[in-house]
Amino acid sequence: MKLQIAIDRVPLDQAESFARKLAPYSDILEAGTSLIKDYGVQALAALKKAAPDTALLGDMKTIDEGDYEFRQGYRSGADILTVMGASSVATIEKCYRVAEQTGREMMIDLLECAPETIGRISDFSNAIYCLHTSVDKGATADPNGDILAFKKRFPSVRRIAIAGGINLGSIEKLKESSPEIVIVGSGITKAGDPALAAQNFRKAMA
Q1: DSSP character for 193?
Q2: CATH code for the domain in which residue 135 is found
Q3: Which GO terms describe its molecular function (predicted)?
Q4: Are 3 and 202 in contact (CB under 8 A)?
């Protein structure tokens, strides 16, 4: 499992500081949606400059203008960009094409997607599919069970990420379902010692 640390809802200079401090413990650093809304794609460039050797995900949550937004995001330093599963299939196809052409990666955010919707978009072989419980809704009660159920229903999807209220207790249980990427945000960035919190998550994932 890879650890993705989401940096969000902070001033850009603090986000850059987080990136420098947390890069040694993360496989992927994330420029969160609100950070990008506050500062634009410049937030991607800033975090990439702060931690150039760590993969950077830009949580663009693209839902239209897929070609344009993905090209802008990749040009600004992102290695992975997100598109909403609720987008039109045409938008997801355009995002995927840009990702493949540029040698980058696409993550499909399945926030509030019905199984029928997921079935229509489950054939992007290199895409990462993110099971995502929204901040407003709160943490999922059983992330491990959610992944196991997802794998059973969509066996062709081989790359899975999980996000939404993941804590040290749920990390332990995720070893059973073994998602490719575990996304943690405030559980690390709002800790008294974010670097120590990141180290604790890494240990729990080992």
Answers
A1: S
A2: 3.20.20.70
A3: 3-dehydro-L-gulonate-6-phosphate decarboxylase activity; orotidine-5'-phosphate decarboxylase activity
A4: yes
> Rounded to 5 degrees, what angle do the CA atoms 28, 34, 40 make?
85
Cα(64)–Cα(188) distance, integer angstroms: 31
φ, ψ (nearest 5 deg) of residue 184: -125, 135
pLDDT in tens, 94-132: 999 999 999 999 999 999 999 999 999 999 999 999 998
Domain region containing 191:
2-205
Q: Could you give the number of structural domains in the chain? A: 1
Nearest to 21 by CA among 42, 44, 50, 45: 50
User: DSSP states of 32-47 as a string?
Assistant: -HHHHHHHTTHHHHHH
The pLDDT assigned to 135 comes to 67
Give 138's pLDDT tier (boundaries 50, 70, 90): low
Question: What is the distance between the alpha carbons of residues 117 and 85, in angstroms, rounded to a whole number?
Answer: 8
Question: Are the CB atoms for 191 and 162 separated by under 8 Å?
Answer: no
